[in-house]
Amino acid sequence: MLNRTGRETAPGTAEAQADTFTGNRGLALEEPLIFEIGDNARTGVDLPAPPKVASRLGGLEREAIGLPGLSEPEVVRHYTRLSRQNFAIDMGLFPLGSCTMKHNPRLNEKMARLPGFSDIHPLQPVDSVQGALELIDSLAHWLKTLTGMPEVAMSPKAGAHGELCGMLAIRAAHEARGEARKVVLVPESAHGTNPATAAFCGYEVENIPATPAGRVDLSALKARLGPDVAAVMITNPNTCGLFEPEMIAISQAVHAAGAYVYCDGANFNAIVGKVRPGDLGIDAMHINLHKTFSTPHGGGGPGAGPVVFSAALAPFAPLPFVRHTGTHFELVEEEQAHGGDAHAKSFGRMVAFHGQMGMFVRALSYIMSHGADGLRQVAEDAVLNANYVLRSLDDVMTAPFGASGPCMHEALFDDGFLEGTGVSTLDIAKALIDEGYHPMTMYFPLVVHGAMLIEPTETESKAALDQFIATLRHLVARAKAGEADYFRTAPYFAPRRRLDETLAARKPVLSWTPESIAAE
Ligand SMILES: *Cc1c(COP(=O)(O)O)cnc(C)c1O
Question: Which residues form the Glycine dehydrogenase C-terminal domain (predicted)?
C-alpha cells in the first residue's frame, strides 16, 4: 500500500493496517516542505505597498528569489511540527559520548537575553559596552583560574576553532624561534578534529599508539619525539573516557624535545574543579563552553571555544582581547597598541569581532551560580553517573577498558557482546530510538571495534539512569535471544524508518509527495 507520503508498506502486514491515509501517526504530523506548500503571492504580514523608488541595485534584481510565502499560522505550525520531530535534551536522556549534552539551566537563558547583553553591536563605542567587556574579562578570569593558565583567548567560536587557534599560536612560537618543525603527534585515541586541525595548519600528522589499557603509550611517544616535532595533541580525559595519568611525564618529554603540548579540553567537565591543566604542563587547551559550562548546542548551533595558554605561548595569543586599565575596560585590537607579554607577538585574528557574546553570558552565569564547590560536584557527579552506567552494564555488554579502573565522564563499550547475534552497534542504536532515547555515540573512538560511547552527564537522576540501563539490558537480552530480524529494521516508530545513511547524505530526497518521490 502506498500512502500519501509515498511510503510503501507490505500489503497485509500489521504495519500496513496501522498505516494512515495522511501519513500522520496520531500526534506525529507529516507535512510537505514549505517550498511545496508556499505560494509567492501569499504573505503572513500586512505591509503597505512599497513606495515607488528608483532601484539602486543597478538592475541586479530580475525576478522573485523564490522564497515561499506562508500565512502566520502556517509558519507557526511548520516550525512547531518540525520541533516535535526532533529529539532534544529537554525531552529526555541524550547519552551522546564526547558531546556532553547536559541540561541548560534556564537562568543562563534569562541572563543572555538581558537587553544590555543581547542588543549590543560589536562596533558600538567601547564606552557604551563597558558591562559587556567586564563580563568577558570576568569569564576570562574564571577560565584562567579553573585551568591554572595565565592567558586566555576568548574569540574562537567552537572546539575545533579553538584547536586551530592553539595550533596557530604554536606555529607562531616555532616561527619566532626560526624553527620550521613539520610534524604533529596525535595519539590514536584523539578526537578526529585534532589530526584535522594539525593538517589544516600544514603539519604532517603522525599517530602515537595506545596502550592496551586505552592510554597514550608514553615510551612510543618518547621514541618518536625529535627536532622535527612541533607539538603533541592530546585529549584528556581521552575519548575512551579515561584520564591520562602520565600527563606530567608526557609534557616533560615533549618540552625537553622543544615541542609544545596541545590539550583537547572538550571533556573538561570530567575534571573541572579537580585538576588544573596548567599543573600538568599543558601549553594550550580549548574549553568547549557549550559542553563544560552548559549552553545549548548541537545541530550546528553556536558554540564557544576559548583557548587558555601557558606563559610560553601567551605572547602569541590572538587579537583582540579585553584589558582592564584600572579604571575601565578596553579592547586591544592591534599588536602595536599594547605593551606587556600577553599577545605581544600575536599571530593575528581568528574572527572579525570578539567571540560568542551570548555564550559568554551563559557560561559565566553557569559558573557563578554553581560556585567552586558546585563545579567540583559537576565533575564528581558526571564521573559517578558514567561509572554507574559502566558497572551496571558491564556484565552483559563488553567494556574493553573495564579493567583500567574507573572511567571519567563517559562509559565505553565495544560490540564483543554482540558476536554471533547478527545484531550490530548500529542496530542497537536504532532500537534505542524506538525506546525514546537518542542513541549513544557509535563507532567512535576508532580504537575500539563497534564502539558505543555513553555519556550520561551529571544532570541525570538515578531514576533516569536506571531506566536507561534497564532499556539497554532489555535490548541486549533481545539481541542475544536471536531477535536479529527485529533489530535489522528498527526503528519502527521514528518519523522515518531506517534510511540508507550514505545515500541520504549524498543524495537527499527532501520532498514527500508521491509525484516527487516517483520523479527521483
Ligand atoms: C566536541 C569535541 C571537539 C570539537 O568541538 P566543537 O565545538 O564541536 O568544534 C573536539 N574534541 C573533543 C574531544 C570533543 O568532544
Answer: 380-478
